[in-house]
Amino acid sequence: MQQVSVDQLTTDMVLAEEIHSLNGSVTLGIGTIITENWIMRLAQWGITTVKVKHEKEVVGFDESELDKMLQSVLQPNIDHKENSPVNGKVDYAFSKVYNGVEGQLCDIFLRTRCNGKADLVGMERLSKKITHSILSITGVLQFIQMPTRGERYLYRHNLDVAVYAGLLGRWLQYSEEDVVNIVYAGLIHDIGKAKVLFEIISKPGMLSPEEKMMMQKHVNGGVQILQNTGMVPEVIIAAVQQHHERIDGSGYPNGLQDSEITGIAKILAIADVYDALTSNRYYKKAVSPLRAREIMLDEMKGGLDLTYLNVFLTNVFS
User: Could you tell me the strand order of the sheet in which 2-5 lies?
Assistant: First the structure.
């Protein structure tokens, strides 16, 4: 670690301290990758020197120290104490896998945030496990529609989306192999948020235009992470890249329209929106399932695939 003047920063460095903008609306956390844009911003904020590390120093982080951090993060939350509206056997069966997968997702996100590389070994195996067991449990819908806590939203959301998307894939009569891919895509659709400052992800209020732009970069950031592993099928990478696209062209990052968006991405979009609406997030309380249905049918009209959406809502509310 070294103190470097802002005019001598290079793009092979990462921050080793927190930096705040002049008005306090933007925070650059430890581990932020230095870019030309951030060098310019730091100068604009009147900051003359910062503490940095070179990327090679960060990649060589102490795995044993990270393991300690993971244990401290995961241990207090290993048992969720919510009361389930479904029977005890369903509650236990779902909770056991749910909490286990959630813990692994948390592990992946934290490790990815530390070294920029996602270890996805075993994730496909998890996708098969969820597909062949969890999706078939009676009462799964009731369980995952229980209010979720904001401090766990980042990890629980990925699992919820995987389950909702997998169920929709089955309702649409996709092959079992395709459903596994859909579940897999759901589990990792937000992996790019590991590259977004946690201060932005967890901000309790509305994001500024600059912060919103940074948040939206999680899509391409996730694609880059997955491509770098060399082990994620292209059909899944495409779904991750397109899960915020909208069939009327109003989505991001590329403003794609109906026929340009893959079927799996359309499924992820519906699952992602429904779970986000019905979950307690850092900055917004959950709405009821009925209100979520109204929003998706009326306020988001033209954005989501109506055929897929009707199948989803028909089964969720049957």
Answer: 2-5, 49-54, 13-15
Q: Across the chain, what does the average pLDDT equal?
A: 80
Asked whether the beta carbons of 246 and 303 are under 8 A apart, the reply is yes
CATH class of 63-316: mainly alpha
Active site residues: 193
Confidence (pLDDT) at 65: 41
pLDDT at residue number 77: 40
Q: CATH: 3.40.50.970, 2.40.10.10, 3.30.750.24, 3.90.105.10. Which one for 2-59?
A: 3.90.105.10
Domain ranges of the chain: 2-59, 63-316
Buried b / exposed e across 133-157, counting CB within 10 Å, b at 16+?
A: ebbebebbbebbbeebebeebbbbb
pLDDT score, position 61: 39
Residue 217 pLDDT > 70? yes
Look up residue 234 and give its amino acid.
E
Write the pLDDT tens digit of every residue in 20-77. Answer: 777 765 666 666 667 777 788 888 889 999 998 765 444 443 444 434 434 444 343 4
